Amino acid sequence: MKLKNLKKKIRRLEKRLQEAPKKLARLKHKLQAAEAAKAMKAARKSAARATATKSFPSTAAKKLSSRKKTKKKLNLSLERRAQLSAAMKARWDAKRAAEANAKSDSAGQDSAQRALPQPPEGRPDGA
């Protein structure tokens, strides 16, 4: 190795060793500042939560209920939309009939008098 390159490497190494303590101190200072900021944020957040639950208990419930997911609009053809509508109506009718049967059974009436509506026929998907 040439003398010039060797001197250059030594100079760079000495410079790096001198800068290392400064860099370490700077990083430690940054870490302390970040930890202090995080602690302040947590304290502020907990204080806000405490005041919110004390004074406005219903607002927290309103906020949670207002965050419901929005429904995606289905791109359906008119025929398929009508088909699904009929299927849902049939399902609701069956559910109402089942509830009515359960009520009449619990009251001791004869449940054989009522007939369940039949689901629409001709649905290839079975839904």
Could you give the topology of this structure?
Blueprint: H1 3-55, H2 57-66, H3 78-107
Summarize this, please?
The protein is mainly α.
Give unreliable regions as ranges: none
What form results from the Cα inertia axes?
elongated
Estimate the mean pLDDT confidence. 80
- The secondary structure category is mainly alpha
Radius of gyration: 36 Å
Helix content: over 70%
The count of strands amounts to 0
Describe the largest sheet.
Answer: none
* Order of secondary-structure elements: HHH
Number of helices: 3
- What amount of the residues lies in strands? under 5%
Termini Cα gap:
81 Å
General description of the model:
By secondary structure, the chain is mainly α. α1 packs across α2. The protein has a domain at 3-52. It has three helices and no strands. It is 73% helix and 0% strand.
Fill in the keyword field for this structure:
127 residues; mainly alpha; 3 helices; 73% helix; 0% strand; elongated
